[in-house]
Every structure is written in structure tokens, then in C-alpha cells.
Amino acid sequence: GSATSMAVGYVKVNWDLSGELALGIFSAMDAGSLFLMHFTDNIWACYAGYLAFKACYMLLITIATFQIAVSLSMERYALMFGFNNFVALAIQTILTVVVVDSKGLGLDISTQFLIYGSYFTVIAGIFLVRSIYTIISIKCR
């Protein structure tokens, strides 16, 4: 994960044009690795899926943070990233209570991979549709 995050700094990409496309692609890769872990019984495939998920997720977070930071002034960094962390923790807590906790759905591990894979599929779809719209609108100008 840290190696992929470091690689972002060395890749020459127009992030304004392809940042959301990258977010969509890596979200889709996260979804694919989670679906792999759901649909396989092979422990080594699950380990490979976890490694792929973690690397793509760290890269996804790095790109998203960069996309947000580009449009902020230096004075707003702490407020924005503090708020982002708070909202992310709140969403993670709600999702964990609903999916994992016995007071919620209390789903088994394999079904959790299916739920989280579906979650990343929706996120990937949103980013991919938005990036296609952005690329088409820029190309048509």
C-alpha cells in the first residue's frame, strides 16, 4: 500500500482530467478483490485478494486526498481533513453496526465481503460515470 501511494508522486498524469477515472478504476479493483474473497474457498486466493485490496485502497485514499487538497488553501487543510476523517469514521461505524454487529444484520464473513464488494461497485460506478462525463465534456469543447 505504501509503495503504491509513493508511486503516485512519480506518475505524470493530468489529475484534473483523469483523477476521477483513476478513483473509479481503483474502486472497481477493490470491488473485484472483495468479490474474489467472497466467491473463492482458496485461502491463498483470499490472501492475494486482500493484498490487492489493501494496495488499491491505499492508492485510492492517496488519490482522493490529493484531489481534495488541490482545491484547498493551506489554512483549510486541518478543518477539511479533520471533517473527512470524522465523517469516514462515522460511516464506518454505522456500516459495521449494520453489517457485523449482532444487533444489526450479524452477517457471516463471506457475506460481508459481498456487501463491501457491492459498496465499492457502487462507488466505482459513480466515479466512472462522472469521469466519463468530464472527459466527454472536455473533449467536446
Helical residues, percent:
over 70%
Q: Separation of termini?
A: 37 Å
What does the average pLDDT come to?
85
The outline comes out as globular
Helix tally equals 5
Detail the poorly predicted runs. Answer: none
List the secondary-structure elements in sequence, H or E: HHHHH
Largest sheet: none
Count all strands and give the number: 0
**Backbone CA Rg:** 17 Å
- Strand percentage lies at under 5%
Structural class comes to mainly alpha
Features:
141 residues; mainly alpha; 82% helix; globular; membrane
SSE blueprint:
Blueprint: H1 2-8, H2 15-39, H3 43-70, H4 77-99, H5 109-140
Helix pairs in contact: 1-3, 2-3, 2-5
Provide an overview of this structure.
The N and C termini lie far apart (37 Å). It is globular and about 50 Å long. It has helices at residues 2-8, 15-39, 43-70, 77-99, 109-140. It contains five helices and no strands. With 141 residues, the protein is an all-alpha fold. Helix 2 runs antiparallel to helix 3 and helix 2 (15-39) packs antiparallel against helix 5 (109-140).
